[in-house]
Amino acid sequence: MDEKKSVEQTEIKHKRRKRYSGTHPKKFEEKYKELQPEKYQDTVKKVMEKGSTPAGMHRSICVEEILEFLNIQPGQTGLDATLGYGGHTKEMAAKLQGKGHLYSLDVDPIELPKTRERLAAQGFGPEILTILQRNFAEIDEVAKESGPLDFVLADLGVSSMQIDNPERGFSFKVDGPLDLRLDPKKGVSGAERLKSLTEEELEGMFIENADEPYADVIAKAITKYNKKGIEISTTTMLREIISEALQFIPEKTRKDDIKKSCQRCFQALRIDVNSEFEVLFEFLEKLPHVLAPGGRVAILTFHSGEDRLVKKAFKHYQREGIYSDVAKSPIRPSDEEIRSNGRARSAKLRWAVKA
Length: 355
Ligand SMILES: C[S@@+](CC[C@H](N)C(=O)[O-])C[C@H]1O[C@@H](n2cnc3c(N)ncnc32)[C@H](O)[C@@H]1O
Fold this sequence. Notes:
It is built from 16 helices and seven strands.
């Protein structure tokens, strides 16, 4: 064989094919141009007009209603128990007009520094705003530093940035590790948690935390994997297990029902992993002791379990004479807000005033 030809052929054979990068951006950061809102303002505007939330952002809910109720005055001291993207914090801090102080808490070590930087760049630095990586269940500790609070806001649950980031594992719609921790450095992941629960406990978790009608069937399906020693390590795996278990649902409603069950089961697991009911309970119990006389608290909830807890606590302390007034029924976002921000649909706002 001609030696030259053979070398050429070998070279051709070994030349690596260039990977086809495809027409669709693969990475989250590339896919969502809105992640850099300053750079892609047109994209952000278009996304918001469609009633969606641009990736990397969170649209604050019931802002006007909250500000109207809290009636913040310059010189007051307040607390935002759930900083998130900092939308509510920014509006509340602005009402102080440079006098007084706002404390804002979040457990999330990933989003918190970004929000701190963003707010500082907008003129809300440490002279008016103290941002702490703390669980709101420790509100009594925070109050030792702040003194009695004139106003408190808690906007419960997760932010859009957390939901949209596949690495965090909050959404069944995107593939990622089944984590679901608000603070990924603490506690155990969703995957670990599923492994450690019995069939009965799983069923109880889905019912208690999310009123899941197919809790028994789904718990059974998960337990099969547990017994085989197969870890349900990703969001996609859990979604597929739920979907497979619910194939008996008549075709007409199957797709929709599966989607709802996925939503509820992920919510239930998130609540469990982050002990959300326990910390909310602790927060509600401590609140009356940290509010100043006449102090106001507003709480935004996103599902019936949370709302029930808030309603019961407010009523209980009103009967004891600790709150002089509480919301008789929850305030709902306006139709216009719901139209322009789908995530506002399930929000309920309750408030109380310290005697
Ligand atoms: C709905 S978002 C808040 C959005 C915020 N109000 C805004 O305008 O951007 C809820 C935030 O509360 C945080 N969070 C949830 N439970 C918490 C807790 N127990 N203590 C402190 N922060 C918590 C979450 O990490 C998330 O960032």
